[in-house]
Amino acid sequence: MERPLTQHITFPPLEIRQYEAIGGYQAVRKALRHMQPADVTALVKESNMKGRGGAGFSTGMKWSFVPMNVPGPKYLVANADEMEPGTFKDRLLLEGNPHQLLEGMIVAAYAIQATEAFVFLRWAYKEAAVVIRKAIQEAYDAGYLGKDILGTGYSLEMHLHTGVGRYMCGEETALLNSLEGKRATPRAKPPFPQVSGLFGKPTIVNNVETLSYIPHIVNKGADWFKSLSRTADGGTKIYGVSGRVNKPGAWELPMGVTMRELIEVHAGGMQKGYGFRGALPGGASTDFLIDKHMDIQMDFAGVAAAGSRLGTGTMVILDDQTCPVGFVHNLEHFFAQESCGFCTPCREGLPWTEKLLWAIEQGRGRDEDLDLLLRHTEWLGPGNTFCALAPGAMEPLQSALKYFRDDFERHIREHRCPYHDPVTAAPASAHLHYTHHL
Amino acid sequence: MLSMTEKERIEEEIRQVPLKRAACIEALKIVQEQRRWVSDESIRDVADILDMSPEEVDSVATFYNLIFRQPVGRHIILLCDSISCYVMGLKSIHAELVSLLNIQYGQTTADGRFTLLPNPCLGTCDHAPALMVDSDLYRDLQPSALAGILEKYT
User: What is the fold, at CATH topology level, of the domain defined by A16-227?
Assistant: First the structure.
């Protein structure tokens, strides 16, 4: 089984000479010397690469929206602000093979004729900051960045930007505001960043896993990429599992593996004494999947057909010893805290949701609270908010109300959490009143 | 007043961007690196150098989780309070930290050594529960390991 993305991951990562020795930067040579920018975009479009950041939009299609005959600066941004709870895949690529990301960025930048490129890295990834800073310097010294790259006439400057912590920065227009030194609130679309992005110039924002794949598609072609997958969504994918399994981890596997294979084979099955109740397939903002979904193929279409989203492909498991109400409360606490406060349904609705869940978890829930929660999933749903944060927050809630309704009802009926005594065992996220902005 | 070093570094950042105010976050990071937190006075100083109003600078400073607008201890403990850590034993880690430090989230120990803060997902969910002290990441935590970790920081 081929693992193009992860086969050369090492700790510490390959230095530039070692990376070149295993074929590194060949895609830069090939693209810049032998392909027109439009050919690179056409190739990525043909490969049917879908963005690995969570939304699954066609990468080549996104690039093709950049106006090519406009003078002035254009930008490429690697979204390395990995902050979706339960997601730890980009950290692997950033820390384990930074040159692969840089090479993908240079090729992508060439395809859209960008003049500058940024790695937008989250604050907490300290080790990644060190290796990326070093890799950028090595790439400059070797002539893959800067003026007149490899004598082709194409020039590109690259910068590392480290963030100061806010989930909203993962949303691409909010990320651009943050790069401009502003609050990370989302922008109205249209215009889309491809036309008017960073400082009002055409900009492409792609996820780290997406960009890291580009060198391989350029070297080996669209058909090869498609052949790696078990389904119509091409390529391999980094899948992950965390929670009460024997071997939590992340693995590069053909797109379309089943949840059963992920949990039972790769993650070594559930820990002794713990049973499977459900899983968020791709981070905090995806609907639960349950037992009956064990054999669906985990690609964009397969997970969508089961009522959820592939998201980031890193799964969080709800076991039978963990309270589903407490679990969902933890998620909604996160979303309420990280809402940027810009639009009313999100700013007001998420704290309300969190408080309702906390009341239920503490045994203070009322019968009508379940309907109220259900109505929130509509009020904060798609089309009613400015960006995707609140609709994403509603996905685990609406599916929990569907699949684990008995648990919610039991909390209300028995005036307590059946999983633990809420007085002596309040979860740490009970502290609603701490100030996270010191 | 900004120090010469702070001024020079902020001016260097201004040269990198098309608009002065685009250096706002970098300027706040520079000040915090020198002083550990950003005071009202520093907000006004940064506003002056970037041709912004203090309110505009403060709106940026208070938006981000890791710009501190109150004094903090010599070391910052960021305890991951997101879902995988919640499932894997956050509660017992939090309880042990509170008992060792005798402070709650958002507070600083009396000797000024530690500030304890919750932090969204640290992106190391296969090794939950996890926390960071300053730039150091600690994973696969057991409550019994915490005292030893804290000892390393004076």
Answer: Rossmann fold (3.40.50)
